[in-house]
Structures are given as C-alpha cells and as structure tokens.
Write a structure and sequence with these properties.
Distance between the termini of chain B: 34 Å
Helix content of chain B: 25-40%
Order of helices and strands of chain B: HHHHHHEEEEEEEEEEEH
Radius of gyration of chain B: 20 Å
CATH class of chain B: Mainly Beta
CATH architecture of chain B: Sandwich
Largest sheet of chain B: 6 strands, antiparallel
CATH superfamily of chain B: Jelly Rolls
Number of strands of chain A: 0
Strand content of chain A: under 5%
CATH class of the largest domain in chain A: Mainly Alpha
Strand content of chain B: 15-25%
Shape of chain B: globular
Number of strands of chain B: 11
CATH topology of chain B: Jelly Rolls
Number of domains of chain A: 2
Largest interface: A-B, 81 and 68 residues
Order of helices and strands of chain A: HHHHHHHH
Strand order of the largest sheet of chain B: 1-2-3-10-5-8
Oligomer: heterodimer
Structural class of chain B: alpha+beta
Distance between the termini of chain A: 32 Å
Chain lengths: 190, 223
C-alpha cells in the first residue's frame, strides 16, 4: 500500500516548482505538482472517510490554494509536501467538519519569537526531511501504527485506546516514544 | 511583559491531534494560542506536520477524474473572494498585548467590552461559544490573590495563562503555561497577589464543584 520514499532529488524539485509558481506564475510547474500531489491528497481524503466526489473537490480547492499562496511558501520552514499537506488538512476541516482551523499568526506582535539558540532548529531542509523519512520507516511497528492512525483515521489517543483495547497509558507512552525517536533523529544528529 | 518561554506545555498527544487535524475547535484554539507563546511547541508541531506530509505523500495515488487538472487550470485566474476581516480596528492595545491570535480573533473585541459574568468575589467568566457537545470554553479573569472555587470534572480541563499567574498543588503557572487537569485532580487554583490573572480554559465533559464555596456557585457555573 505505501510506496517507497521517492529519491531526495525529486523532493528538492517540488520546492523549486512551488517557487516557480510564486515567482513567475509557472503553469507547467503547477501541472507537474498537481500530477504528483493531487492523487495522493485524494487518497488521504478517502482514508479519512470522504466520498469520492468530495475528495475530488477538496483536492481541487487545495491545489487552487497552492497556486494562490505559493508566495507564502518558505523552504526554510517546511518541505513542499508538508506545506501542501497542511493546506489540504485545513481545507478538509473547513469542508468536512465545518469548523475553522485556528492557527497562530507568525506576524502577531504578541507572539513570543524563537530564541536565538533555537535558530538552527527552525531551518528546515531536504536533508532533515530525508532523515525524517528514514526515522519514520524505522519506527517499531506498534509506534508507527499509532502515528498513522492519528493522521489517517482521525482518532484521538483516547479513541485509539478504546478501539484497540490497549490501556490509555500504553497508547500515550507509545506516541511519546515515537515522537521522542523522531526528535532525536532530526535534532540530535548532524 | 517579560518574554520568558513557557515551562508547562501541552501534552504530546494533543500536539499530535492538532497536527493531524483531529482536535476539536475549542482545544485547537487553545493549542494554537499556546503555540504563539511557545517556540518549543511550535517547533514540535512543525516536526509533526512534516510527519503528516511525509506519510501523506507516501500513500499510493488514487486516480482523479480525467478532467481534474483541466478544471483547476481553468480556475487559476479566478479572483478569490475577499476574506472578511471584521472588527480588527475595534480591539484595544491591552487586548492585543495580552491575547495572541487566534484567540483574539475568536473574542472579536476588547477585553473591557466583553459581557463578563460575575462568578464570585473578584472572579469573572466569559463563556465562548466554541465547538460543540460537551466542550466548554471560557475566559476567566480573577483579581490578584483570588481563589477559584475548588472543582473537579468528568473530562480534562486545559487552562492557558494569558496574563498574571496562578498556583495550585501541581505548581505555578504563568503566561503561556498550560495546566492540564484530569478527573482525578481536585484542585483549587489561587492567583498570584500582585496582578490580575487572565486564563483561557477548555473543559471536556461536565464540571463538578466540590468545595463548600463550590456548591454555592454551582448554579451559576453549570453548563
């Protein structure tokens, strides 16, 4: 079901395509991004229980937002796949749950800025993303299963505990262990 | 205001649910507002979003309708309908200072203009209609040194401090800190004496007041 991670050169390419849209309204770049991401976003929406027609509409709306907001994409903050995922996630909340997606405003004067010592941590890169793919692939099955269920079944840790018959404490500690491992892979290594 | 970063954070499972998009709206508002005050949790959520992005792009593709790309390309030049930006100008500096986005947007006006409800000596509450079902979201404002009624609840109570500080048997909570109390806790928070305390609180499940004072207040605080 899951595919092997694409090579890193392909991932770097997606960031270039987003910037081509932002800089010169490059329709060919958009078509290429659409070809790669739209069918995967549709799978994501179907996994979360959308019917085919709604999934198709949300994918189209998401990709339209990708086109319109490409100028706000910043490859130092997130990879292309992550940025597009968050757009589709938010469209889905808006459309299927009929709720707003509250997010902080990075330009809010009330926001407490990153400390200087955090600066290194806040620069995203394709190298970090590649490390993260490896880290996810290497999670023990019981941890990776819980993370996937959180993203693809819209289950809270309480619901996962109820449905799997696992004690709540076990679910919590497995999620925390998984997050700890990912953190170590991303922050702890050069 | 000192820009110290928070000591008490949201639970990792809550950050995961926020990133996955499965957290209810009231708890999402609280989470996002904590993120505005907490570089550490912002970083954690960025990492979790990357997990979501990687997992999603690893999914096997599902074919779209054959004309899907053509349909979207035809819409690229549409002018998006403007997003209404209500009331932004009506919010005063005090509110902008103490209440970060996105909570400020949900409140929609200045703190002093809100219809606060009195809940006892030096305690005011503003219930916010946010989310559905048994989730109860509200702003709570207390005078310096005021004690909140002792209470416990069926679900989880999450409290984000926006101004001032309070202390309970688990520690001292200041601006940006999050206190997470479960049904097992029966606590009695007391605000620091030197400043008023402003908090945003979300309770899953119903609230039960436990102390003598609590029973007195119960008719006013019930959902």
């Amino acid at each position: 079901m899951e595919q092997p991670s694409p090579p890193e050169t392909a991932a770097a390419c997606h960031e270039d395509l987003l910037e081509a849209i932002a800089i010169r309204g490059d329709r060919a770049a958009f078509a290429e991004l659409f070809g790669h991401f739209a069918p995967r976003l549709k799978s994501y929406l179907l996994r979360l229980g959308a019917d085919a027609a709604t999934a198709e509409e949300v994918v189209q709306e998401s990709m339209l937002t990708v086109w319109r907001k490409a100028a706000s994409f910043d490859r130092r903050q997130a990879g292309a796949g992550t940025w597009i995922f968050t757009i589709t996630r938010n469209k889905r909340i808006d459309r299927l749950r009929r709720e707003r997606r509250p997010e902080y405003d990075p330009n809010d004067p009330a926001l407490i800025p990153n400390r200087p010592e955090d600066a290194d941590q806040t620069v995203w890169s394709t190298q970090i993303e590649a490390r993260m793919r490896v880290a996810i692939d290497n999670l023990p099955p019981e941890q990776s299963d819980l993370i996937r269920r959180a993203y693809f079944e819209e289950l809270s840790h309480r619901e996962i505990a109820e449905r799997s018959g696992l004690p709540l404490g076990t679910v919590k500690s497995r999620i925390r262990l998984a997050m700890q491992r990912l953190r170590e892979r991303i922050d702890g290594l050069d | 205001m000192t820009d110290t970063t928070p000591v008490f954070h949201l639970e990792p499972e809550v950050l995961l649910a926020y990133s996955a998009g499965s957290l209810d709206e009231a708890n999402s508002v609280l989470t996002a507002t904590h993120l505005a005050l907490c570089p550490r949790c912002r970083h954690e959520v960025a990492r979790l979003d990357a997990v979501g992005g990687i997992l999603t792009t690893q999914l096997a593709p599902t074919a779209l309708a054959s004309d899907a790309l053509t349909a979207v390309l035809a819409r690229l030049d549409e002018v998006p309908s403007p997003v209404e930006d209500k009331v932004a100008a009506a919010i005063d500096d005090e509110t902008r200072h103490w209440v970060p986005e996105p909570l400020r947007h949900y409140i929609g006006t200045s703190l002093s203009a809100l219809p606060w409800k009195r809940r006892g000596f030096a305690i005011h509450e503003l219930p916010l209609s946010l989310g559905a079902g048994s989730v109860r979201a509200s702003l709570i404002r207390t005078g310096g040194g005021a004690a909140l009624p002792a209470h416990s609840h069926d679900g989880v109570e999450t409290t984000l401090v926006l101004r001032g500080a309070f202390r309970d048997d688990s520690g001292r909570y200041a601006r940006g800190d999050v206190s997470t109390a479960t049904s097992a806790d029966d606590h009695r928070p007391v605000a620091d004496p030197d400043d008023e305390c402003l908090c945003f609180s979300v309770i899953d499940g119903s609230l039960r007041l436990t102390g003598r004072f609590g029973r007195l207040l119960n008719p006013f605080i019930r959902i």
